[in-house]
Write a structure and sequence with these properties.
- By secondary structure, this protein is α+β, with helices and mostly antiparallel strands.
- The chain is built from five helices and seven strands, in the order E-E-E-E-H-E-E-H-E-H-H-H.
- Strands 1, 2, 3, 4, 5, 6 and 7 form a seven-stranded mixed sheet that branches.
- A hairpin with a 3-residue loop joins strand 1 and strand 2.
- The chain is elongated and about 140 Å long.
- The chain starts with 12 loop residues before the first strand and ends in a 6-residue tail after the last helix.
């Protein structure tokens, strides 16, 4: 005898890999459903990042019309959500420099993505995994409408225009953060430069430069290296000077020889002119 249909109702669907299947329904007027797969995020290498192991949910097959805000609203029914991160493919958490405003970030590719949802409480992960697959999560409601199609394009076109006051505020905030980071880097470099270094015998020697210049500690070993470098430079300079002096002497000797030959030629020509006689016959 076949089991009754009500017996299998309100049950979770777990597929190989430990993923729990959840159903998404765009609106109450649309019957078609979309399936997403969720799983507790357990990557030991990311234990100290912004994805805690006991409160992070990994989501696959998120449709393009679901933004981070929409995902946060959908999963808030299982517990308070701390953060949502959508990516094109799974990967480690990347933090590259300061967070830029939307005016300076390139547009993301539209397509199915993966997500990392961080809850404030660990119990929310269990609640999500126990949600029945035949009870869909409604994406667009009257209180939370989601734009699609032509309305979405018109909305994105209007949002693409930057308001001068908000743009100026974003630029000012970025420049303040940039100046703060530069000051911190300068202080860190100054502290590193003032550290004392010991030489091989255990002596400590610290030198300070002029005001406004960076100070650099010198040890006896570094002083010896500097002296050797100066000695090599001095010898190289002396050798170059010797070659220059030799070249000059060679030029002087050549010029003196040319002058001597010129005087001898002048005397020979004068002698020939004196010996010349008029002989008509």
């Amino acid at each position: 005898m076949a089991p009754s249909r009500s017996k299998h109702a309100n049950q979770t669907c777990v597929i190989p890999g430990g993923f729990t299947v959840l159903s998404l329904q765009f609106s109450t007027d649309i019957v078609a459903q979309h399936k997403i797969c969720v799983k507790e995020h357990r990557v030991r290498i990311e234990k100290t990042t912004q994805r805690p192991l006991d409160r992070t949910l990994f989501v696959l097959n998120i449709p393009p019309y679901c933004s981070e805000g929409v995902i946060k609203e959908l999963f808030s029914q299982f517990g308070p959500v701390q953060s949502v991160e959508l990516r094109e493919k799974p990967g480690s958490f990347e933090h590259s420099g300061p967070k830029l405003a939307k005016y300076f970030t390139p547009a993301q590719k539209q397509g199915f993505r993966v997500g990392y949802i961080v809850f404030q409480k660990a119990i929310s992960i269990t609640v999500v995994k126990s949600h029945p697959h035949d009870v869909p999560l409604v994406v667009s409601t009257e209180q939370r409408p989601v734009w699609t199609g032509l309305q979405k394009w018109i909305h994105q076109y209007k949002q693409s225009f930057a308001q001068p006051d908000k743009l100026q505020e974003a630029v000012d905030t970025f420049m303040q953060d940039y100046d703060t980071r530069k000051e911190q880097e300068a202080e860190g470099q100054k502290e590193d430069a003032e550290e004392q270094l010991e030489d091989e015998e255990g002596w400590i020697k610290v030198t300070r430069g002029k005001s406004g210049t960076k100070t650099r500690p010198h040890s006896e070993v570094s002083n010896q290296k500097a002296l050797q470098k100066e000695s090599r430079k001095r010898k190289r300079k002396e050798l170059m000077n010797f070659y220059t002096w030799q070249h000059r002497n060679t030029q002087k000797e050549h010029i003196a020889e040319l002058r001597k030959k010129f005087e001898e030629d002048k005397q020979r020509i004068a002698l020939l002119r004196a010996q010349r006689k008029f002989r008509p016959y």
